[in-house]
Amino acid sequence: MGIRGFGITKPQAFEQAALALTAVMTDPQQVDPQMERHFTCDAPDDELLLVDWLNALIYEMACGHMVFGRFDVTITDHHLKAIAHGEPVDRKKHEPAVEIKGATYTELSVRQIEGNGWVAQCVVDV
Amino acid sequence: MDLNLLSRVSAYEWHIPQKGKMRVPGIIYADESLIRDMDLKVYEQVVNVATLPGIVQASFAMPDAHWGYGFPIGGVAAFDPQQDGVVSAGGVGFDISCGVRALYTGLRADDITPVKEKLADLLFAQVPAGVGSTGRLHLKPKEMDDMLAGGAQWAVQRGYGTVKDLPHIEEHGCMTGAKPAYVSDQAKKRQQDEMGTLGSGNHYLEIQEVVETYHDPLSEKLGIHSGDILVSIHCGSRGLGHQIGTEYLKKMVVAASQYGITLPDRELACAPIDSPLGQEYLGAMRAAINCALANREIVTHLVRQAFSEIFPQTSLPLLYDVSHNTCKMEEHQIGGRSRRVFVHRKGATRAFGPGHAAIPADLQAFGQPVLIGGTMGTASYLLVGTKEGMGLAYGSACHGAGRSMSRHQATRQWKGQRVIQELGARGILIRSPSARGVAEEAPGAYKDVTAVVDAAEQAHLARKVAKMRPLICIKG
Questions:
Q1: What does the alpha-carbon distance between residue A57 and residue A50 come to, in Å, rounded to a whole number?
Q2: Within 13 Å, how many C-alpha atoms sit on residue B85's CB side?
Q3: Which of B219, B253, B313, B470 has the highest CB neighbour count under 10 A?
Q4: Contacts of B239 in chain A (CB under 8 A)
Q5: Residue B421, burial from CB neighbour count under 10 angstroms (0-12, 13-18, 19+)
Q6: Which residue among the candidates B332, B399, B408, B460 is catalytic per the annotation?
């Protein structure tokens, strides 16, 4: 399934891509920001950084049984720091449709678009 | 896909001529209609795989081929280590050793009808399914390593399943060459609570009725009759396999230039088989195969427990267990001589023909059983490998129907509860923790599995034995 985040800035596009990741599994509006998790990622380029960021979230969703609905991302060069806000998965409340196995390099792109803005996208395997 | 891109060899075999950076041609086994419905990306991916170092004979696609990650789903390719051949994490995929097993029940459809609801509820309660579900088995580090080295044999030693199951599992239930040390702590942590779980997406546990048999002497000899009830289990290596796929994909992407490999698509990330990274991946990937085999053995144990509450006399012997996301070292006759190659099957099933040494003695005469999963509203199939298939695509066949529609499109077209009601009216009981998950898996979102299986048979990749329809489906 493809996910795509748009933002005025690159970090915003990364935040929106993370929100799209959540939407693959559940309705992001059903997620309360009760808890936060901190992430750092480093990669040789923006695209690998996006995959690392999404895979870090997927790992926390799988091992921590978490679901996230809001994200604060900062990126300096190819170093990402982020806080994800969310809560433990509640199968009745969130009705998670499918677990996400991993972010792939398929259709992977982080680029500036016309009219000022950024897009961050890839396909995730479910 | 535009047929003009291909050269027609027969009604079921189409070639992509070698050109550009391709080291070998591409070969697609399918009929004209299936090929027309295939995404152009399948063509591109078959071509891309054909450019990888050390590829042997051809880059193959099965009748259910569809757009995958790097390799097409339904892709088969073999690489020779003596010709700088590679092993590709993308060529195996994230759900390492995902597969299907079938169990005999000794029951008939009439036996199930009066207890169907009760059996469905029991199975749903007994087998953890869906996002966030955890198994009852929680492995400590030493146990995890033992499981990764021992596969289904480890599970049997722990009291899950029986010794009689093992000959009917590929590799006798234990993939040799597994190296738990090459599996990261993160991957092991991701798996520690997931043993004996189905997962989600297209994974399922089904109670199926045999509705049609083919080549009657063959189905009779395999003990399959119209009206028989089988159990089918479709799941894989769970979080451990996903994490190994994620980690080694990145390692191979980063290392490709060091090995002088130019990747036409980063998802084709690979490393020379004989390189340290190639060997590490093989060790970790084989450990994930063992994880999948152990997982299906534990789920089988849970299914047997549920059945025993209603049918205490049933033992549910294993018909066969096949994986469809693997890379295995195999010997094949290539160019008139035996060669040892590493066969990647991504969304493709091993389908060895009669007489192959890897097939258990009681099935030697018939060929290896091939289990093709359909949708919860259509059908699944049992086939066997053929002698001809050994010379076509290393003894491989299709693995399922293949999606024709994205999950997003499916949720716009169907509602989960409505799908459950409609299937219920047709006598198919669905149990799932997620209505949206059911909508995403609606039968209409998949290709016609019968067309796929017919093409596989007509191409001589495998031979049909039986068609099964679902009566109960536990969806993750």
A1: 11
A2: 20
A3: B470
A4: 62-63
A5: exposed
A6: B399
- Nearest C-alpha of chain B: how many angstroms from A102? 6
Gap from A52 CA to chain B (nearest CA, Å): 9
Of all residues in chain B, the one with the smallest CA distance to A26 is: B436
The CA distance from B211 to B100, in Å, is 19
Mean pLDDT value across residues B86-104: 96
Decide if B254 and A44 are in contact by the 8 Å CB cutoff.
yes
pTM of structure: 0.95
Q: Name the closest residue on chain B to residue A23, using Cα atoms.
A: B408
| Nearest CB to B131; choose among A44, A63, A89 | A89
The residue segments making up the domain with residue B181 are: 99-404+446-475
Indicate the average pLDDT of chain B.
Answer: 95
**Residue B428 and residue B473 in contact, taking contact as beta carbons nearer than 8 Å:** yes
CATH number at residue B316: 3.90.1860.10
Q: Residue A51 corresponds to which amino acid? A: V
Residues 6+ apart with CB under 8 A from B160: B196, B294, B297, B298, B300, B301
Tell me the ipTM for this assembly: 0.90
pLDDT digits (tens, 9 = 90+) for A48-72: 999 999 999 999 999 999 999 999 9
Q: What is the pLDDT of residues B174-231, one digit of tens each?
A: 999 999 999 999 999 999 999 999 998 899 999 999 999 998 788 988 999 999 999 9
Mark which residues 288-347 of B lie under 8 Å from A by CB. Answer: none
Domains of chain A: residue spans and CATH: 2-125 (3.55.10.10)
